[in-house]
């Protein structure tokens, strides 16, 4: 089989791709509860002839494998949704279920596109009778930045040689470097309860400690490196106002361009917490939830990806789809829209071309993903495809509406084409694979160590 025939395989799976995307979108499950979603993919791939490998300690994680020998090409899939972002396919806010979950980051599309590609690659290996193995990785809890970190801890990526990944976005683009390193930590303060009116002097407020800690961290923001981000939420334990709170906590996410910067910022935040506890005569306990690495750059892999972005036919959109995209755009105030004029040189609401090779430098995704850990274990690429309108941000109701529409599904099917073509090259161009692996080894300045403890 040649590349045109591989594209034909993906084309014939278009209906399946759309059906999977819709099935997962219709029944959104947040991280840690993706039982039905995982089972949909397990059943589909087992029926297709894949061997399913589960990890009993991670009930919603698995990989499905087909083929024999090297190279072992991993295709990363996800399927968790976001809480509170339920939304119909509508250009106005209209939740399917008030407070319900929704696919506002397009993980229904990631799972569908990646599974479609894995099936097409499997059929290619089967028909061509060449040596090689394809694995589809069913990865839960990406929105919690923990699923792949846990999978790495339990050795689920062992034996894989190279990983293919993509993400829904508002442009068709390859990313050489992306994702910030991140870690999640919780700070639990313990004080002494007392009647806030009758005997306030006997109380030691854990909530005061939380508030002082957060003030201290806000002052810390001036003294960290560029692109460092610190987000937090708090819990006062549900005490009434007339009780000095004996328990309260802060939950922090820290992001930075590199893991060593994340760890150092966490060290400083811990000192702030200890200072807050000292000021309030309370105690504090710190618990690290998990952390995920930044994405390791691999220019040769991005070159290969860009080549196949150009080769795969991108989606064409109907007048109705363009009108829907424009209506979604109009719901966001001009000042709130994501802008990059050099990337989006179009008057259309949907990006229909391929972003120039070098534009990733101006469009780095300043979010985090547990996929970064995979890029430290083996070479990994990343590209994005148009799945929502220009200016729409992920984690919004507008993104949910688009990921449930034909716009999102077309983006997933286009991604499947690119993934399958990249895999074809990795199986048929050993010199390209070796060059990618060589660059990975040369950039391996820091040995990978998972930031997860069972």
Give the class from helix and strand content and strand pairing.
alpha/beta
| Count of alpha and pi helical runs | 13
Mean pLDDT: 94
Q: What is the helix content?
A: 25-40%
Q: How does this model look, in words?
A:
- The chain folds into two domains: 325 residues, Aminopeptidase (3-Layer(aba) Sandwich); 112 residues, Alpha-Beta Plaits (2-Layer Sandwich), CATH 3.30.70.
- The protein is globular and about 80 Å long.
- With 454 residues, it is α/β, with parallel strands linked by helices.
- A five-stranded mixed sheet has the order 1-2-4-3-5, sandwiched between helices.
Topology overview:
Blueprint: H1 3-12, H2 14-26, H3 35-47, E1 51-55, E2 58-68, E3 72-78, H4 107-128, E4 132-139, H5 147-153, E5 162-164, E6 166-169, E7 173-174, E8 181-190, H6 206-220, E9 229-235, E10 247-256, H7 259-280, E11 283-292, H8 299-311, H9 319-330, H10 371-377, E12 383-386, H11 397-403, H12 406-428, H13 430-442
Parallel strand pairs: 3-4, 3-5, 6-12
Antiparallel strand pairs: 1-2, 2-4, 7-12, 8-10, 8-11, 9-10
Helix pairs in contact: 1-4, 1-12, 2-4, 2-12, 4-12, 6-7, 8-12, 8-13
């Amino acid at each position: 089989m040649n590349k045109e025939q591989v594209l034909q395989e993906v084309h014939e799976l278009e209906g399946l791709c759309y059906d999977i995307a819709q099935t997962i979108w219709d029944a959104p499950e947040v991280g840690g509860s993706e039982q039905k979603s995982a089972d949909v993919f397990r059943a589909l791939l087992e029926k297709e002839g894949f061997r399913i490998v589960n990890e009993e300690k991670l009930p919603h994680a698995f990989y499905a494998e087909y083929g024999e020998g090297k190279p072992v090409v991993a295709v990363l899939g996800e399927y968790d949704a976001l809480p509170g972002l339920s939304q119909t396919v509508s250009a106005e806010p209209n939740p399917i279920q008030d407070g319900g979950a929704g696919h506002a980051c397009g993980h229904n599309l990631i799972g569908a596109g990646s599974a479609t590609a894995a099936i097409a690659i499997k059929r290619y290996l089967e028909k061509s009778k060449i040596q090689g193995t394809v694995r589809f990785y069913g990865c839960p809890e990406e929105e919690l930045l923990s699923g792949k970190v846990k999978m790495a801890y339990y050795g689920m990526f062992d034996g894989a040689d190279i990983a293919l990944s993509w993400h829904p976005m508002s442009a068709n683009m390859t990313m050489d470097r992306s994702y910030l390193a991140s870690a999640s930590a919780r700070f639990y303060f313990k004080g002494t309860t007392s009647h806030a009116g009758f005997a306030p002097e006997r109380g030691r407020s854990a909530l005061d400690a939380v508030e002082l800690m957060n003030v201290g961290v806000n002052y810390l923001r001036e003294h960290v490196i560029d692109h460092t981000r610190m987000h937090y939420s708090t819990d006062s334990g549900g005490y009434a106002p007339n009780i000095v709170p004996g328990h309260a906590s802060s939950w922090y996410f820290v992001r930075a361009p590199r893991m060593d910067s994340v760890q150092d910022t966490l060290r400083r935040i811990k000192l702030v917490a200890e200072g807050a506890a000292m000021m309030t005569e309370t105690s504090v306990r710190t618990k690290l939830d998990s952390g995920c690495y930044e994405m390791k750059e691999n220019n040769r892999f991005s070159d290969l990806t860009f080549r196949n972005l150009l080769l795969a036919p991108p989606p064409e959109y109907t007048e109705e789809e363009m009108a829907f995209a424009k209506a979604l755009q109009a719901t966001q105030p001009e000042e709130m829209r994501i802008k990059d004029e050099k990337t989006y040189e179009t008057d259309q609401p949907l990006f229909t071309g391929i972003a120039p090779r070098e534009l990733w430098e101006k469009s780095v995704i300043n979010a985090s993903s547990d996929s970064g850990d995979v890029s430290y274990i083996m070479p990994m690429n990343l590209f994005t495809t148009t799945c929502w309108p220009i200016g729409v941000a992920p984690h919004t109701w507008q993104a949910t509406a688009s990921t449930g529409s034909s716009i999102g599904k077309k983006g997933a099917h286009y991604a499947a084409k690119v993934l399958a073509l990249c895999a074809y090259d990795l199986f048929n161009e050993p010199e390209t694979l070796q060059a990618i692996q060589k660059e990975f080894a040369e950039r391996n300045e820091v040995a990978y160590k998972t930031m997860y403890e069972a």
